[in-house]
Design brief:
The chain is of the alpha+beta class. It has 23 helices and 18 strands. The strands form six sheets. A five-stranded mixed sheet has the order 4-3-5-12-13, covered by helices on one side. Strands 7-6-17-16-15 form a five-stranded antiparallel sheet, with helices on both faces. It has a two-stranded antiparallel ribbon with strand order 1-2. Helix 20 crosses helix 21.
Length: 767
Amino acid sequence: MAWRGKGEDERREPVLARPGETRAQTPFDIRLDARDRAGGAREEERPKRRTRAESPPPEPEGEPVARERSTRSSPSARKPEKAEPRREKAARGDSGRGEGRGGRGSAEPARRKPRKRFSLLGFLIKWCLILGVWVALGVAGIVAYEASKLPPMQTLMVPKRPPTIMIQSADGKPLATRGDMGGAAVPLKQLPTYLPNAFIAIEDRRFYDHWGLDPVGLGRAMATNLLSRRVRQGGSTLTQQLAKNLFLTQERTFSRKIQEVVLALWLEQKFTKAEILDLYMNRVYFGAGAYGVEAAAQRYFGKSARNVTLAEAAMLAGIVNAPSRLAPTRNLKAAQDRAALVLSSMREQGLISPEMQAMAVSKPATVAPPSAPGSIGYVADWVAEQLDSFVGELSGDVTVRTTIDANMQAQAQGALSDTLAKSGAKFGVGQGALVSLDTDGAVKALIGGRSYEESQYNRAVTARRQPGSAFKPFIYLTALEKGLTPDTVREDGPIQLKGWRPENSTHDYRGAVTLQQALALSLNTVSVRLVLEVGPKAVVSTAHRLGIASQLEPNASIALGTSEVSVLELASAYVPFANGGIGVIPYVIDSVKGADGRVLYSRAASGPGRVMAPEYAAMMNRMMEETLITGTGRRADLPGWEAAGKTGTSQDYRDAWFVGYTARLVTAVWLGNDDSSPTKKASGANLPVEIWSRYMKGALQGVPVAELPGGARSAFFGIGQPLPPGALPDEAPAAVVGTLPPQQAPRQEEPMTLDRWFVDTFLGGRR
């Protein structure tokens, strides 16, 4: 390449360095300047021609200088050279042609750029940013890892609320609830406005402003807790609490908290604020087994959540912070103090007026007494157990109307509890049960034990105990159906069957007695003779026909009631005596409705029909009326009513029974101990009769009086006639000497003759 001279047409060829010359001694530089580019350069920009004397100072010795030989070329063939790399320029001490930089256009040597001062603030900012990036990446990784443990979000669904069983009395009043949630769901729009506002005010005041996670609320809670040096506020939003309740456990771990945040964000994307609040209020735990505001309102205030007052709403909102500690049934004062704090927060946020706050604070909420006796738990459990067989698997909330009369239930619980409290220790009795049925088989009252809170075992339905002499009516009915009458005479005397010698409780004998007298006095020897006379299998068949469902052993010892039965089935088997011979199937469920009001089940009248001829029912009623007039049940006291029944006491006084009835109600009472240990001579004639009398007086109050079918007021034989002279003993267990192997009693299905009766009775069936 060439360098232009003074004339535009003058060309000067480049001269390479001669041997021994340095770069500085070379008169011409072969690099391009501005005039060599297209269009040339302005005159004032063109550098003046330098002489050898004006050449820049020599470069340090030993530095090689690259020289290129340039051939002559036309102006159109000239092309600018590529700029040398800056590093090579710095090595030569050449910073280019720019003026003032020590290049060829300046006689001053090149100067280095001044070095920047070290900045501590910049250093800190730089490393804080780097550290922040790494922390963010670490947090993102942890969140991603914990989120990976959750089901895929596209498949995640809010779990269905477990169904709740609302149990009502016969008149439609609520008795109890069953189900995991403890109460039905109530839509948000059906609740008073101040109820959800109370939760927002105390639990999440920025509920409508955040997106599931509230950094402002979290920071405020942290500051408050630090200043007070204890945990006073929580940073979780309502959405986070809902996520925990729906999907996670209650454990306090870092992993669970991260999953809670992830799920809260998902809930906010999936549902509206109203839907989230609806889900929250119907799922959150309020203590005492109550989940959701409806269950809590029923449990604590005896009313629906639709009808709670402002003070009650504030108390409900305050409970969720610590249900086990703030439940009003456990600590009413703490619950009221917390409710006052909720009301204050509501006023500060403008959700209520100062006047509303003052009124609510002046009349704080209190706990309402239970709407039903505690023993209703036995009924509720029994209903829940058998509901599947009526409507199948539940898919939602249901309402079950039962046959229970709340007043009768309370009367039954009071009679049993008070009697055991007064005399239970004296007689060595720890437990009891009671079942009361109407003549249709509907259960009007059922007590499964002394205290449901202490023991939920249902002794009225599940337990089976020996009925003792309370089983004898089935023996006497079988004898009547075989042709005997209440006036039939049998011998009350010693009897022995292969080492088995049943005796009366007094160890004495009355000789010839009528069947009516023998049943009234509960003579064991006569009962055994009748079983041998009619046959044990016939007795078992009669008992099953009338309503006994348990397995019965067809042997002679059944005369003393040695086969175990439940209180419920024994009561139901007595119902045909009270209604004139119609068998019943005991029931407690009348109807079942879904949450939408659709009827899922409605009971239709059904049963086994007639199981006893009316004339035999009349005979049995007259015979068992005598038991209450002059026999072992004479302590029964029910003025104005025709009543009949039978006492029962098992061996060693282990079980004490009384089953009595009128034309309206049949009630069975059992007393004993769960471990079958002997009582202190508790017999059917004392405590059970006392409980029965007290209950029946209250249960039949205001009920029109009705006569028993063929009862004592009807003209018939024998009822009320004087018994043979002598003391009338209370009911006592049979004195049994030796044992009777099963199946030893002979079958007596054919018609009975005097000869056959003598052989069966005194020779054990052997001719």
